[in-house]
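Reply to dn_fold:

You asked what the input looked like. This is it:
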Amino acid sequence: MTSFLKIKLMHIVNHLTLTGMEYGVIKLLNGLPTDRYQKYICVLSKVYPGIRDLVSSDIEIIELNKSPGFDLRLVGKIRRIISVNKITIVHSHNWATYPYAVISKFFARNCTLVHGEHGRETIEWHMSRFQKLFIKLSKYSTEYYTTVANHLADDISSLWEVDRRKIFVVSNGIDTTLFKPIFDKQTVRKNLEIDDASIVLATIAAFRPVKDHACIFKAVGKFSLLYPNSTLLVIGASFHQDLIDQMKALAKELCGKATVKFLGLRKDIADLMQIVDVYINASHYEGMSNTVLEAMVSKVPVIASNNKGNAEILNDLPYTQLFKIGDHDELYNKLCILFADNEIRRRIISEQFTKVTTKYLLKNYISNFDALYTGLRTHANNPSL
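and this is what came back:
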């Protein structure tokens, strides 16, 4: 297929890093066929070191280095990118990118706008007057909205007053053929200086209040009184060194006898998951957690807070491993049950693995978005359809 017939697709993200939403964009664009798509990632702020290695060579990354606050210069830059490259579809992600996408599209005109919402920083959705007004006006220029979960689509439909039929729900997906370890367990343990007898717990999350690391630290501290040979792997990072220092100080204060290892951002999650005995997600809010799905496909039992996103994945399983948001005592009790009853542990692993490998596959994630983009291009070429 010749270049001019391709769908010219540009995703807009605030940062390009290994966190859930951004990595999902990378996996999606890597998977869309090159014979039908010309692909771009427009990064408003910063591309994390090493991320470009994960992006297919046919995808152009455009880094704009946004200034703090609303950087009006970016509107002109994005408009020019759309016009010069004759972008067919712009797909923005989360509120930080939405105003730039809407205003740029207004001036560039000849493109279709899709906006994706993946989560938020609090349990309740707090919007300023400006956000409410902007969302109301931008509905007329946004062809479709996308979310990763039904609960999030319901929230957008209700709070943003968007027709539910315009909201396209595509659950996150895992590539079971690629998400496999390279090194054996003994090598991973040796590299991390973890002895064979140590119980390994893990959490993966950016250092933000909504992720509630303190809840995990408190539960692990109590758990370490029973299992002093336990190790907690804290995987994630922040742009701000002071937040990293605060997190390390909090872990030292709360984690008791447990060894805590801060590993930063990692590309070898499949390798690390081999040595993990239980994965913990304590977020106050999730759209749909990629890391929960990655743990499930790695046959690592998941214990998670009962936010809407985690509940959508885990709530219908017979052995539901959900605890009340912020309740470190209930999290501790769930941990104790896992290590006290091997049969329950085995069943939890089996049920979670079966669900993720039947419902949350990357090939479905890619094909669903391919269908959306193809339909939008067809409609743009033939408005009467």
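The first strand starts at residue 7 and ends at 13.
Hope that clears it up.
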